[in-house]
Design a protein that fits this description.
The complex is a heterotrimer of chains A (518), B (396) and C (592). Chain B has 396 residues and is an alpha+beta fold. Chain B contains eight helices and 19 strands. Chain C is built from 18 helices and 23 strands. Chains A and C meet through helix 5 and helix 13 of A and helix 7 and helix 14 of C.
Chain lengths: 518, 396, 592
């Protein structure tokens, strides 16, 4: 008899895990609460005729191994052309950051060279961590042979891949903040600000927060997979391709089915119960939901050890980013920005001090007085996202803390209008172009996408919540204290961004523990 | 906001006025922060009051928690290793509980007072662990140590004393049962429980009635030998009765700093309390894993030959043999005329050592001497008497 | 360069020097002073001038800087029979471990102010008790709340427990779990203090052995404890404590120790570990308790100096080293600002890593990478200090009359948010408008520091930046002092009237006087990139400098700041190892 698997949640990781397991012959059913697949990486329409990527709007880290092994291109995955990052300047002295190059009026030759070397060095570090990324995090005691092999590979890559000098440097910067590292290397404040944003976006961190080198490494690691793109059709197209691949391998994908609880029988997961009352029994249950949702809501603390449940409960999942969708009657005019440049990834983050100040507010339950923005206009590359001649703009606005002292109900439009006004400072007359607008605060994200705290990465990616401690120790190797229950979402190692690695690693782990099906 | 009284180091219990009056030697110690007598007068007199007549002990410092709410039972069942599904209102059960690793945090008793209403008594402070364990459950937990005055009335004449003092309805009260009664118009809860291995009761009431309750008992002193007893006498009888004392006989898991210095129920010889058939409880997975392996060490009850006190002795697998353990607590039992000990010893291949010898250092007029004494493991309580559970109890 | 005459006179000096060891010998250009070592309240030595014609002598070792680590290092070298000279730029010894009479009748420990981390192993090995050191344990600590209440962490355990319970019954019980957990990490980290960190990139046997020791220590923990330790090591103090406690005042109270001297906020990852840096000290086995050196912190350096001198060591004050002399990739001695050159087989720098490499070493003697690392070394000062002479005992009406809490530390920041906002100000190069202060009135139990009936208050202030907008001026410094005084005065109505004299020190003053770059009290921030094998720089964490015979022994090296003495002792061990001498430094007492 074929062994059956139920996967809770059709986010990209759930789908990737489903695809791998189905490919290996398991009987896989994916249950998705929303009416479409993709979770945070889906396309939504927010006003009549306007569509936009739901949460994630840039594809920058999808594992090339996953794409290859699941033949996602064969299922219609289109990454789209690479985009640059342009850090906007009020006076029009914009800065363009590519993978290796930085151009702009205010950038010195020294910074240009430093940027090239810096990116190269960091990509090397990221590559050295590859054995850790693509495997289950090794346990530090009672290691199995795979753990020992992983550790040996990392040790070897660090010492002999990087060499003594780079290894020492890596061990020095690995635990600290991006602020100090960038100040050591660069002079240009806008350049530093733009790089620092990549280290903090989606996290409850500012550039001066220790840990931000690690989060930046995660981001740079994506560049080893492929350059950042705006996928045509939005992120929904990407996850639809993965869904199609999973379906092609025989997985059954059922949107609109919300799971009420995970059934546990004598310490073993035995299936799920839906809100409809239907029970689905399975040999294996895989959760794409975050750790708090999985353990505290779906499993229930009664099936868990008390301190384990406490640890899960104390994981930090405070989202900090609000999403603003804007429907535009025509393309906005930014000072000295060509239409081609408008189609790139645009940032509003003048310098690290501005970024740090924006973060300060988040610590006290306030939204940033001067927010930090990541803007895309996906309708430039894909006009089908908006009515003819019109455009959609997708903005990730930081910081908008989940726990707002004044409550989001009163403040949501205030913050949205602040964001629009801020864009107006860079693109005069912007407000007049707005046809429609919508904001998703972290509270809305929690409700709509089931992400606790509205946290993009299903949990802060600090060291204490990474690797063998992600989401918590005792459940860091994708298997959980409940036999037959596995985690496959960003809540698990190596964490967030649309990488597909948690889904991939979880599937490998299941195959290893459960053996080949049938 | 109430200011803190820094001058008062130990807190008085509601019985303090009487305790202080009766305590001749003023030998105080702290029990959970309360001022408690180690000895009132002479240890021997107090010990024999427990074993041959009637003793009274101020139990108030024992940690007490009130647990109520729709999930109260689920909460307790998930907390403790024992199957408590047979517990019902008016009954008491002994329990112990573990951390995630299956190491014992503490032991105590659960009193079911009513539907969804329980009192948990423990040796040590447990509020943090209880609240931490209540995550996701609809249950209300409050510490009520100071809100409930408690006395232990223990000894062969305790039934007669209490009856004479005016408490009615005790004759049919079986061990581990609760009686709600009243005295002079105030409510008293009486449970047939105790820490002495003898006939005995524990009385629970509002602190406002504490002194009146004490006085009612001592009012019949002219008929019976009734003595207040301190912690030292209790230490002898609890070892005679074979009860373990968390913190003395083993390190409680929460306070253990060195790995392997905490103990599982199996290692304490308390495996009989652990039930793997009940729904999940904290530590279950770890205990199942441990149970599949041979026991590595155990806390055992031992009688030690001779009369030299084996205090803090090392234990060996033969005279001058290999060291296999230590004695954690020991008393001279006046009634058995023997040294009784709780000892932590290594098991080999899950088997107890065939021979155990204690190397005893003892002092005679400031001169230290050493001797060897053979030890014998005792599985049952060292001492037990049928009067402990006879219902109705014997009358005197 | 070494003429026979010079050699001969050097030899004659050596023989003379050994005869004088009982008193110790101080050398100053062409003149030698003999110091007495028994004065109690003054660290300025009574000096006997003695003329001598010879200044050329080669020492076995020169230690630059008479801070407590320099002196400790020198003492262990002297104990091994080496001929050691300590050079100090100021006219007093001790560096940041000094007591000075800056207002007549009042002694100020004007930099470091408590003694808890000082290694008992070193105390014992150098017989510091015999040399006059007395460390009195401090009693408790208080956080005053804005609502008029307070939280007091009493010395007496039962009283402390009840006081925690007054704020939160749960926290009182959680503190048992917290104490046991903290003790686990203390036990682990304390074992590394008196050891040399291994170089992870090295392939040498000794490094492998040190790594094995490190791993073995870790493996004494259970698996989940290992993860918990990593979490502790990398988390913020606020978030770490929030896993145990719920009361705002208690969270704020226990967080304070984690930001002292640190350019990080209570919510910055990595600060939980700094707590350990303050909590793992002990006085007579009472882990976490802080001690106060009778006579002020100067007593610590004076006792070490006395021990050093009793073993034949020499100290020269007012001897400012201008440069370390390097010849053929070997350190050969130093040149003083007077132009005088002093030679030695080994040169040890007690200065911070920035000063050592950027000020007193020639650029040509440094590899490029080291130069870059020294330039980038993070040593931002973040603390200020006030020393206040008081006409009487200030009153704190929030406390019950006769409360013992005034005997301990007093703080006035009662929430994590206020602590974090204090840090935000510092990030913007402002002193905290609502600073975190650590206040002590040691004269309550040390009568030697003020006239009878009068008091001395030591106020440590977090945060105070290295540079304020437009640069520090005396007026700005005084405004900073005013901010601090006002905060204390709002909890003590008679405080301002009692002030007879106040010394206000920002990082600017601390740097100018003590020579700590940017006024950083730890000689370099205690962040992950500057700890263990990264301290001060990767590849240079084993006390050896870039040229042969040159060493570092200051708090810039492992295990870092706090008046510990461990860097000095560890450096001495490495020097003696290189020289093939007997190791005179102590091993950790161990806990099991």
């Amino acid at each position: 008899m074929t062994r059956s698997v139920v996967i809770v949640g059709a986010g990209h990781n759930g789908l990737i895990c489903a695809a791998y397991l189905a490919k290996s012959g398991y009987e896989v059913t994916v249950l998705e609460a929303r009416d479409r697949v993709g979770g945070g990486a889906s396309t939504v329409s927010f006003a009549d005729g306007y569509s936009v990527s739901g949460l994630a709007h840039i594809l920058h880290s999808l594992s090339s191994k996953v794409c290859r092994e699941l033949n996602l291109a064969g299922s219609g995955l289109e990454a789209g052309p690479p985009v640059d990052t342009i850090s906007l300047d009020r006076q029009g002295q914009h800065l363009t950051l590519g993978a290796n190059t930085v151009t702009g009026d205010g950038v010195s030759q020294k910074d240009v060279e430093a940027y090239r070397d810096f990116k190269k060095e960091f990509r090397t570090y990221a590559a050295a961590l590859d054995p850790l990324m693509m495997n289950k995090p090794p346990r530090l005691k009672d290691m199995d042979s795979q753990d020992k092999f992983t550790l040996a590979k990392i040790g070897w890559k660090l010492r002999f891949g990087l060499g003594a000098k780079s290894m020492r440097e890596f061990l020095r910067v690995g635990g600290i903040n991006i602020y100090d590292v960038l100040n050591e290397i660069f002079d240009n404040e806008t350049l530093k600000g733009a790089i620092a944003l990549d280290a903090v976006l989606g996290h409850h961190m500012g550039p001066r927060t220790p840990n931000t080198v690690l989060t930046y490494l995660h981001r740079v690691r994506g560049e080893n997979q492929g350059l950042q793109t705006l996928p045509p059709g939005g992120m929904g197209q990407v996850t639809q391709a993965i869904s199609d691949a999973a379906h092609g391998f025989g997985a059954s994908i059922r949107p609109g089915e919300k799971v009420k609880r995970i059934l546990v029988n004598d310490g073993k997961a035995s299936g799920v119960e839906l809100f409809s009352g239907e029970q689905l029994h399975a040999d294996i249950v895989v959760s794409n939901a975050d750790a708090k949702t999985t353990f505290l809501d779906l499993v229930g603390t009664g099936e868990l050890d008390a301190m384990f449940a406490h640890r899960v409960n104390k994981t930090r999942t405070r989202g900090t980013v609000a999403k603003v969708y804007i429907a535009l009657r025509e393309l906005p005019q930014f000072r000295d920005l060509s239409p081609a440049q408008l189609g790139q990834r645009l940032l509003v983050v003048p310098d690290m001090r501005y970024l740090e100040h924006a973060f300060n507010h988040a610590k006290y339950g306030e939204f940033s007085q001067a927010p930090v923005l990541e803007i895309t206009i996906p309708s430039i590359a894909d006009p089908s996202l908006a009515p003819a001649g019109h455009h959609v703009m997708s903005v990730s606005a930081s910081y908008a803390p989940y726990e707002l002292k004044d409550g989001w109900e009163q403040q949501r439009t205030v913050f949205m209008d602040n964001v629009i006004a801020l864009i107006g400072e860079y693109a005069p007359g912007f407000e007049q172009l707005v046809v429609d607008k919508e904001i998703l605060t972290p509270v809305d994200i929690e409700t709509e996408y089931g992400l606790t705290g509205g946290h993009w990465h299903q949990g802060e990616m600090t060291i204490d919540q990474s690797f063998m401690m992600r989401p918590v120790h005792g459940s860091a190797q994708y298997d959980t204290p409940v036999e037959g229950l596995f985690l496959c979402g960003a809540t698990a190692h190596p964490g967030g961004n649309v990488t597909g690695i948690p889904g991939h690693n979880a599937a490998q782990r299941i195959l290893k523990i459960q053996g080949e099906p049938g | 906001m109430s200011k803190h009284d820094f001058k008062q180091v130990l807190e008085p219990t509601p019985f303090h006025a009487r305790v202080d009056e009766q305590c001749m030697v003023k030998n105080w110690t702290s029990w959970n922060g309360y001022q408690t007598a180690r000895v009132y007068d002479t240890l021997a007199a107090e010990y024999f009051a427990i074993r041959s007549s009637c003793s009274v002990m101020d139990l108030t410092p024992m940690e007490k928690y009130r647990i109520t709410g729709p999930d109260a039972f689920t909460f307790l069942s998930r907390l403790v290793v024992r199957d408590i599904s047979k517990l019902q209102a008016g009954r008491v059960t002994y329990v112990l509980w573990c951390n995630d690793e299956g190491k014992v945090l503490d032991d105590g008793t659960i009193f079911q007072l009513a539907e969804n209403d329980y009192r948990l008594c423990s040796q040590h402070h447990q509020l943090d662990w209880l609240l931490l364990s209540s995550l996701g459950m609809d249950v209300d937990i409050s510490q009520e140590t100071h809100e409930v005055a408690a006395l232990a009335v223990q000894g062969p004449t305790s039934y007669s004393v209490l009856t004479e003092a005016g408490f009615s309805g005790l004759s049919q009260l079986k061990p581990f049962r609760i009686l709600q009664t009243n005295l002079h118009g105030f409510e008293v809860m009486i449970s047939r429980t105790g820490y002495t291995g003898d006939l005995g009761y524990e009385l629970w009431t509002d602190p406002a009635n504490a002194l009146e309750m004490w006085d009612a008992i001592f009012a019949v002193q002219h008929l019976y030998n009734i003595r207040p007893i301190g912690l030292d006498a209790l230490e002898i009888v609890r070892i005679e009765a074979g009860f373990i004392m968390p913190g003395d006989d083993f390190n409680t898991a929460e306070t253990t700093v060195r790995a392997d210095h905490d103990r599982s129920p199996f290692e304490l010889g308390m495996g009989w309390v652990v039930n793997f058939d009940k729904p999940y409880f904290t530590g279950k997975r770890a205990l199942i894993a441990e149970h599949s392996l041979p026991v590595k060490r155990r806390l055992v009850k031992m009688s030690v030959t001779g009369n030299k006190p084996p205090a803090d002795s090392f234990l060996f697998d033969g005279k001058n043999g290999k060291r296999i353990g230590t004695i954690n607590s020991q008393v001279w039992s006046p009634i058995l005329k023997a040294n009784l000990a709780m000892a932590d010893i290594e098991y080999r291949n899950g088997m107890k050592p065939p021979e155990i010898w204690a190397e005893i250092y003892y002092q005679k007029e400031l001169e230290w001497r050493a001797t060897w004494a053979e030890c014998r493991i005792v599985e049952k309580p060292f001492w037990s008497h049928p009067r402990r559970s006879a219902t109705p109890p014997g009358q005197y | 360069m070494f003429t026979p005459e010079i050699l001969a006179s050097a030899l004659s000096f050596i023989s003379q020097g050994t005869r004088k060891t009982k008193y110790g010998v101080q050398a100053r250009a062409r003149a030698y002073r003999r110091t007495g070592n028994g004065t109690v309240t003054m660290i300025y030595s009574r000096v006997l001038r003695e003329t001598h014609r010879v200044n050329m002598k080669k020492y076995d070792a020169i230690v630059i800087g008479a801070g407590h680590n320099g002196l400790t290092n020198a003492a262990f070298l002297a104990k091994a029979g080496l001929d050691v000279l300590v050079l100090e730029k100021n006219e007093y010894i001790g560096g940041a471990t000094a007591s000075r009479e800056l207002h007549e009748g009042w002694m100020y420990s004007n930099c470091s102010y408590v003694c808890s981390l000082f290694r008992p192993e070193i105390y014992q090995a150098l017989d510091l008790g015999e040399h006059g050191l007395e460390v009195v344990p401090l009693q408790g600590s208080t956080t005053f709340k804005q609502d008029g209440d307070y939280f007091g962490s009493y010395h007496q355990p039962a009283v402390r427990r009840r006081e925690i319970a007054r704020h939160s019954k749960r926290d009182a019980d959680a503190s048992i779990r917290f104490d046991a957990d903290l003790m686990k990490w203390c036990r682990l980290v304390r074992g590394f203090l008196l050891r040399t960190p291994p170089d992870p990139a090295s392939l040498k046997i000794r490094d492998a052995m040190e790594f094995a020791y490190l791993l073995k220590s870790f493996y004494r923990l259970t698996e989940s404890q290992i993860y918990e330790f990593i979490r502790f090591f990398t988390m913020s103090i606020a978030e770490y404590l929030e896993e145990y406690f719920e009361s705002d005042a208690i969270l704020a109270h226990f967080s304070g120790g984690s930001i002292i001297g640190t350019g990080l906020g209570v919510y910055s990852p990595g600060t939980a570990y700094v707590l350990l840096h303050h909590a793992m000290g002990d006085v007579d086995g009472n882990i976490g308790s802080w001690g106060f050196a009778r006579g002020g912190m100067g007593s610590v350096s004076k006792a070490i100096a006395s021990s050093f001198q009793s073993m034949g060591g020499e100290i020269r004050t007012q001897a400012d080293v201008q440069q370390i002399l390097v010849k053929g990739r070997q350190a050969t001695g130093v040149v003083l600002d007077s132009g005088e050159e002093v030679y030695a087989g080994v040169v040890v720098s007690n200065l911070d890593a920035k000063r050592t490499f950027l000020n007193i070493m020639a650029r040509k003697d440094l590899p490029d990478e080291l130069y870059r690392r020294a330039s980038n070394f993070k040593i931002r000062g973040s603390s200020g200090k006030l020393n206040i002479a008081l006409d009487g005992m200030p009153q704190f009406p929030a406390l019950p009359i006769g409360s013992p809490l005034t005997l301990g530390h007093m703080h006035f920041t009662d929430t994590l948010e206020r602590l974090e906002r204090a840090y935000d100000d510092w990030k913007d190069d402002c002193w905290s408008r609502d600073p975190y202060v650590d206040t002590l009135i040691p004269t309550q139990y040390d009568p030697t520091m003020s006239p009878a009936g009068k008091h001395m208050m030591s106020v440590f202030v977090q945060y105070c930046p290295v540079e304020v907008e437009g640069g520090w001026t005396d007026a700005k410094r005084d405004a900073f002092g005013e901010t601090v005084i006002n905060q204390i005065a709002s909890y003590s109505p008679n405080f301002k009237d009692l002030i007879l004299h106040a010394e206000v020190r920002t990082p600017r003053e601390i740097e100018a006087e003590v020579g700590l770059t940017e006024g950083n009290i730890f000689q370099g921030e205690l962040t992950l990139d500057q700890l263990m094998f990264n301290r001060p720089f990767p590849g240079y964490a084993q006390y050896r400098g870039p040229v042969k015979n040159m060493y570092m022994c200051g708090s810039s090296t492992h295990p870092g700041g706090g008046v510990m003495g461990a860097p000095g002792a560890n450096a001495a061990r490495e020097i003696l190892l290189d020289m093939g001498r007997e190791n005179t430094t102590p091993e950790d007492f161990g806990d099991d």
